[in-house]
Design brief:
The protein has eight helices and twelve strands. Helix 2 (about 35-45) packs parallel to helix 3 and helix 6 (about 155-165) packs across helix 8. The chain has a five-stranded parallel sheet, with helices on both faces. Strands 6-7-8-9 form a four-stranded antiparallel sheet, covered by helices on one side. Helix 1 links the parallel strand 1 (about 5-10) and strand 2. It folds into two domains: about 5-120, Rossmann fold, CATH 3.40.50; about 130-225, Arc Repressor Mutant, subunit A (Orthogonal Bundle). The chain is an alpha/beta fold. It has helices at about 15-25, 35-45, 65-70, 85-95, 110-120, 155-165, 175-185, 190-205, and strands spanning about 5-10, 30-35, 50-55, 80, 100-105, 130-135, 135-140, 145-150, 150, 175, 215-220, 225. The protein is about 35% helix and about 20% strand. The protein is elongated and about 60 Å long.
Amino acid sequence: MSQTATILVIDDEPQIRKFLRISLASQGYKVIEAGSGNEGLAQAALSKPDLLVLDLGLPDMDGQQVLREFREWSTVPVLVLSVRASEIQKVEALDGGANDYVTKPFGIQEFLARVRALLRQAPAGEAQEAALSFGPLTVDLAYRRVLLDGEEVALTRKEYAVLAQLARHPGRVITQQQLLKDIWGPTHIEDSHYLRIVVGHLRQKLADDPTQPRFIVTEAGVGYRLLGLSPQPQHTVQRCSLS
């Protein structure tokens, strides 16, 4: 990874962003800034940075949530930079997908060394697509939106989670147990009726006939898979919450 890499800094403190911008730019990096979680996720989807520097104390959403949402569609390295120094917070962030964790206050030389290390580890030229299209159906993982024939479909969080999981593995069968574990938790892996109800609602909202499915196929006794065209990038302009 060359030092022309793009680094996205998500931090609500302007003085910290300025300090990092100057320090990183002096090393030849291109720096993009965001002062909130929602803005940071939008910038990540649009600019496709090579590294994300993430504060946990953001004004609109917790940085741990930003990390979880970012990891739904991107494997770009994440360096957490936070005043939170407890072992619990560090473990949660690292388990949630962070690649490194630096506490504030911090030494800039150590910080820059960690940036260089993460950029060296990042696969060169890796494409990160935030939105996937399957014929008339688009699942935008970065903005958590679903479009059908260009019109937004209002989904509950569970409905979106099931569809997003299937979209991340197009054409592959995802078992009922895996979906239940990932979305409802390990204590619900036998509660298949939860999943059947959600899939039924999804099919209604997507006008998907289970006897002649356009999108969601049931593999009897096993799980579900998503039909459609090969994933293609789509561009979105607005982030919105689920119902």
